[in-house]
Here is the input.
Amino acid sequence: MDVTVEYTLHELLKKIFGFDQFKGNQEAVIKNLLDGRDTFVIMPTGGGKSMCYQLPAFLYPGTAIIISPLIALMKNQVDAIRNFGAEQGIAHVLNSSLTKAEITRVKADLSSGHTKLLYVAPESLTKEENVDFLKTIDISFYAIDEAHCISEWGHDFRPEYRRIRTIIEAVGKRPVIALTATATPKVQQDIQKNLNMLDATVFKTSFNRPNLYYEIRPKTKNVTKDIIKYVKSQSGKSGIIYCLSRKKVEELAETMQVNGIKALPYHAGLDSAVRVRNQDMFLMEEIDVIVATIAFGMGIDKPDVRYVIHHDMPKSLEAYYQETGRAGRDGAEGNCIAFYTYDDMLKMEKIMQAKSVSELEIANQLLLETISYAESAHCRRIQLLNYFGEEYHQDNCQSCDNCLHPKPKSEASEHILLVLDAVLETKQLLKAKQIAKLLTGEVDSIITAHRYDELDILGSGSFEDTYFWNAVIRQALVEHLLVKDIENYGILKITEKGKDFMKNPYSVMLAKDHDYGNTEGEEEEYFQTGDQKGGSSADTTLFAMLKDLRKQISKKESLPPFVIFQDTSLEDMAIQYPITHEELKNITGVGEGKAQKYGKPFINLIRNYVEENEIIRPNDMVVKSVINKSGLKVDIIRSIDKKHSLEDIAVAKNIEFDEVLTAIEHIVASGTKIDISYYIDEFVDPYHQEDIYDYFKEEAETDSWQDALRILGEDEYSEEEVRLVRIKFLSDLGN
Here is the structure.
């Protein structure tokens, strides 16, 4: 092309877009396209992909055809180009959202040569009438945005994208530029092959986003409360919350609104006008939060999104990377927090059963890689970059949960061998859940029907629970020692690699981690202090004052400080600033009893501190919800009042004994007084009772039963004894 590229490029960059210099390898990409060569661009979100085709469109004679997957994306980019001061006709969209009159106007501008960029959806591109029209205009080049949609291995596969090359050949061959923010080597090859551009010049920018913090949190039944507390700690900042289902999007957006958060939903089921309005309100900062399905965000140019939260983990790491990449596009702070439970992965597997065998194989592999990432104890950044074929040469990124808070690991090769033995012993006919049950000694109808309860392997892993064995099985799947039979959903089979492992075992480390398989945890809380990224920031000054007040009361009452309020409760107070009795009851570990007995001086101190320091408190302390709370605690309290044994309570509620103990501990920690002396007197030696009680009263620095067991002696005292007497102590003296 006969232009003075260096001068013209920089002149247009400043004149039209207002930038003094190009970002990364934008200039090299643009020059390659201007030279008429096919171009393939892999550039992370925020790297400036759109500039790579927008600026050349102004230099090339004719109209650039921009193939884009979402109407919202097209509208956003066309509005941006028009806002640079160009005439309205300089950029248009051609899609199903237009009226006949609007389509006529668009085609008139195209025919007259006024339009430099035409955004078109792949579905519209394939319409015969549009193909015939495009043959009549002068086309400069084709740009295929979000090109990963072409690949079946990509996270947003769109069958229509695989027809693009055929349409291009029909309309008229011109240079092609394909762009994506996420492409593994496999996806990249698939894209180039399908577009017949294997000889294209490839420009690949590093996938590393050093300003992003990555964290995976266990997803409990309190996930909505956890999300709302986090969002309130980020008051005034823009955020995106992703959910997999439209129903969950609607529910969460409504709950956030009820709790005083400016949030709106976004999903494909909403009316087009509503979607556009909600998106515009987010872009114009009239709301702080968009709760969305994956339909939101592709190409949305909002640079100051400070956090991206995943209520549900996506189906692939590409999707996760793409969606988290919408945080911190301006280079400033971006927190990426995902809530994960393995149960969600199982639900996805069930949903995917309608796919063909080949599609299911791909989907399961992508899902397995997501599970591996979520449950891993290794640096999140290293894993993400390795997934995209890039190496990260630091041992610790200092910007993910696993690097900031390393998880302890243990050797798991013996455990994996036991799992593989169980799979073989049962003739490779059981699902993961049944293998875990078999190892712990549990049986179900399938196990008994096949007479597997008569095998020696039954109960061979009873030293651990089913959650542990499920984690071991998942590790074996990640290591490709086991595979789930696609045609017989869920059935575990040993791979060739697994057979080799049985002959020559090698080290496999299993991280001690959150129980990602248990979503029924009672009142679990996740808290990080202010010097840690990604968590809520406690007011350190107030926290210190609250600890001093607690110490004064503990001396006056002759009680250990933790009996008054635990540290987690004080930390939550230093975030939420409760100044009424009702607000205090919504603090972690504070129920009516605690609030009534000890609350007043703490409320007074916080109220004075807030007034003196002109603190702007988080709005609406109570996380309001339409969902009814579980009646488990009420049932347990009633059963204890009737002096039922704790074992009988466990059987009646169909839960484990340990779960009953945990529930009672939470009941007591919240300030409710209960009396389990009848049970303790029957099962705990009187001398042991006295020793444990005295320890907590006289010696203990914390209320940790683990510390107590270690100090008192694990050989002489059992975990159950220590926990039971601790419950009695806290109830007697603290409630």
